[in-house]
């Protein structure tokens, strides 16, 4: 199965700053990569699909890039509501697999 | 309101079975596939499989094959996940997640809040 590795595990950022999260796949997944935001006790929220397409209603400060095995999620200017766990998900191959997550915390 | 509402927390003994429900509202249930994903404490999300809500066809992760069963009740717009022969390591939060429609797209545009299943003696 494809192993998804996210880095860093924790990212400390001040409100208004830029956050850059990475996700690496152990095999090529083309652009079949999604990013989600997850807050405790809530349902995960789709942010980005097809590596770079924002999901419906997602603010423009969220952007995704990459293809093949290297992917990036960028939050251009962190808002208070953005502090959460973010995880990536490849859907190019069965079984579908997920990264271990990056926790974005307030610095 | 478009949402997935899952059943409440369960505590089960080893060897028992658990059945988790996921009720869809606000959209046409049969137009979307439903996946099941779980997250054990301190672990990453783990995909379990999916069910075609229209025809009931299923695909299971090899890890759970033989122990998990997905069903659905279209009249109730509800999907079910049943896991049998429970082990301590099955303690996890179980999520249902709707597949976003698209050719070969298997990402999830709607999730439930999760159901905690605890396996305890």
**What is the mean predicted local confidence, pLDDT of chain B?**
97
Counted by DSSP, the helix tally of chain A is 0
What value does the Rg of chain A take, in angstroms? 13 Å
Task: Please mark out the parts of chain B with pLDDT under 50 across 5 or more consecutive residues, or reply none.
Answer: none
- The oligomeric state is heterodimer
- List the helices and strands of chain B in order: EEEEEEEEEEE
How many beta strands in the DSSP annotation of chain A?
Answer: 11
Chain pair forming the biggest interface: A-B, 24 and 25 residues
- Strand fraction of chain A: over 45%
Mean pLDDT of chain A comes to: 97
Order of helices and strands of chain A, N to C?
EEEEEEEEEEE
Explain the overall architecture.
- The complex is a heterodimer of chains A (about 110) and B (about 120).
- By secondary structure, chain A is mostly beta strands.
- Chain A is built from no helices and eleven strands.
- Chain A has strands at about 5, 10-15, 20-25, 35-40, 45-50, 55, 60-65, 70-75, 85-90, 95-100, 100-105.
- In chain A, the strands form two sheets. In chain A, strands 2, 4, 5, 6, 9, 10 and 11 form a seven-stranded mixed beta sheet that branches. A four-stranded antiparallel beta sheet of chain A has the order 1-3-8-7, with no helix packed on it.
- Chain B is mainly beta.
- In chain B, about 0% of the residues lie in helices and about 50% in strands.
- Chain B has no helices and eleven strands.
- Chain B has strands at about 5, 10, 20-25, 35-40, 45-50, 60, 70-75, 80-85, 90-100, 110, 115-120.
- In chain B, strands 2, 4, 5, 6, 9, 10 and 11 form a seven-stranded mixed beta sheet that branches. In chain B, strands 1-3-8-7 form a four-stranded antiparallel beta sheet, with no helix packed on it.
- Chain B is globular.
- The model of chain B has no long low-confidence stretch (mean pLDDT about 95).
- The interface between A and B is medium-sized, with 24 and 25 residues.
């Amino acid at each position: 199965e494809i192993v998804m590795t996210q880095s860093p595990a924790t990212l400390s950022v001040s409100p208004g700053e830029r956050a850059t999260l990475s996700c690496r796949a152990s095999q090529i997944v083309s652009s079949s990569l999604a990013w989600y935001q997850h807050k405790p006790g809530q349902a995960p929220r789709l942010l980005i699909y097809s590596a770079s397409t924002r999901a419906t209603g997602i603010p423009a400060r969220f952007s995704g890039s990459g293809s093949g095995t290297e992917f990036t999620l960028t939050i251009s200017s962190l808002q208070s509501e953005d502090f959460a766990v973010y995880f990536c998900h490849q859907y190019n191959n069965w079984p579908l697999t997920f990264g271990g997550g990056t926790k974005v915390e307030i610095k | 309101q478009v949402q997935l509402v899952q059943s409440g927390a369960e505590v089960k003994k080893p060897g028992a079975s658990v059945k988790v429900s996921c009720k869809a509202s606000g959209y046409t249930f049969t137009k979307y596939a439903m996946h099941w994903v779980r997250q054990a404490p301190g672990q990453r999300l783990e995909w379990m499989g999916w069910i075609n809500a229209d025809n009931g066809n299923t695909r299971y992760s090899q890890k759970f094959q033989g122990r998990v069963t997905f069903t659905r009740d279209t009249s109730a717009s509800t999907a079910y996940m049943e896991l049998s022969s429970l082990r301590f390591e099955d303690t996890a939060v179980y999520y249902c997640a709707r597949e976003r429609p698209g050719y070969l797209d298997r990402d999830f545009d709607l999730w439930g809040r999760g159901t905690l299943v605890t396996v305890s003696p």
